[in-house]
Amino acid sequence: MNAAGHCNTFTPQKTYQKCMNLPTQQASIAWTYHSHNATLDLVFFGSFISPSGWVGMGINPSSPEMTGTRALITFPDPNSGQVVVLTYILGPAVKLQKSPLVSAPLDIHLISSSTALYGGRMGTVHNGAAVHIFATVKLSPNKTKVNLVWNRGLYVQGYSPTIHPTTVNDLSSIAIIDILSGESASSSRTNNIKTMKVAHGVLNAISWGFLLPAGAVTARYLRHIQAVGIYWFYLHAGIQLTAFLLGTVGFALGIRLGDLSQGVTYGLHRKLGFTIFCLGSLQTLALLFRPKTTHKFRKYWKSYHHFVGYACVVLGVVNVFQGFEVMGISRSYAKLGYCLALSTTLGICIALEVNGWVIFCRKAKEEKMRREGLVGSYEKRSADDD
Fold first, then answer.
1. What is the end-to-end Cα distance of the chain in Å, rounded?
2. Which of 70, 138, 152, 271 reaches 20 to 30 Å from 36, CA-CA?
3. Positive or negative CA dihedral for 84, 85, 90, 95?
4. How far apart, in Å, are the Cα atoms of 102 and each of 65, 87, 106, 133?
5. Where are the chain's structural domains?
6. What does the pLDDT read at residue 3?
């Protein structure tokens, strides 16, 4: 049983022996297992997210992932308006959206299935409407663990459900349930994954998203301050090296999260992550091959170092915002805090840039006056007056 809250074993149609709250979408299940004939009576409690949407649950006979799931999906019939439940097989083509999802007979022993809105015939499909999906399945002998998959979507085209939302919760709607003990292998696994996601996000936001731009700022603006001297370089190198080390740990956590999240793919976020790590590695290696200031290849090395560095900074910031979207916290205080830190850094850059241009223009004007002899004659006239 799930200790996080109370689940329900009662429905108007039947009473079940065990129940469990599922980790996402406020869904739950209840079931009775008949060991003498390996038959599982199951009800899934879900809710719609739009009047024209769908709710589904299914069993994957081979692995805990969406691809390969034998699903029961309920939605309003486009002709009658009454909720219906149809059977679907979620193959690889459906996941890649190469073809629409078409109802097909299941190749597992489904004895019966039905659906009902909470409230019976008086119930209507709307955003938040509760729905029950009933199923009776004959399992393989001695198989007491079930790979349960569930989800919900916004639209149905005819009798073809469209893709569900791709937030973290929607992509994590998978659990391995022991129907004898009533325990879910997803509970501890989900907690571990959440902890790793938080650590991954924090490390990468600090390293690629903040320290790396801060290190670029020190190199651009402190090197021209005579009082700082050569120490700007050590500060720049220290910040960038710290950012790379923390980013490497965050990158490794991201790789591990990808291995643990079977069937979940974040294409752009993943590609940007690999690109940033490769660029960061090249920048770190560039320190080992830095030519002396008098070397003829020094100017080419500087061009390479600047281009790769600024590309890494821009992509790092972009990917941090991608990470907020992936984690489903695009409107959180964490994102607000990061935006404030980033905007503060940007404000400092603008102020330093303006100050740098003012000093540059002043020096250029003085140099022009010196070339024209105005400064020298002015100084000479001042000396004669004295």
1. 97
2. 70
3. positive
4. 19, 9, 12, 19
5. 18-184, 189-330
6. 38
**Model pLDDT for residues 192-225, shown as the tens digit of each residue:** 777 888 999 999 999 999 999 999 999 888 887 7
- CA-CA distance, 330 to 318, in Å (whole number)? 13
Coil vs helix vs strand at 102 = coil
Chain centroid offset of residue 68 CA: 24
pTM of full prediction above 0.85:
no
Yes or no: say if 182 and 57 are a contact pair by the CB < 8 Å rule. no
Task: Indicate the CATH number of 189-330 among 1.20.120.1770, 2.40.50.140, 3.20.20.60, 2.60.40.1180.
Answer: 1.20.120.1770
Rounded CA-CA distance 264/271 in Å is 14
What is the Cα–Cα distance from 23 to 266, expressed in whole angstroms? 21
To the question of whether residue 306 is assigned a binding role by annotation, the answer is no
Place of tokens 């459906």: 94
Q: Please give the Cα distance from 74 to 90 (Å, whole number).
A: 15
Number of C-beta neighbours around residue 229 at 10 A? 11
Q: Residue 126, annotated ligand binder?
A: no
Confidence of residue 186 (pLDDT cuts 50, 70, 90): low
Write the CA distances from 213 to 107, 301, 315, integer angstroms. 55, 20, 11
Residue 284 in tokens:
């770190």
Please, are residues 44 and 29 in contact by the beta-carbon 8 Å criterion?
yes
CATH architecture of 18-184: Sandwich (2.60)
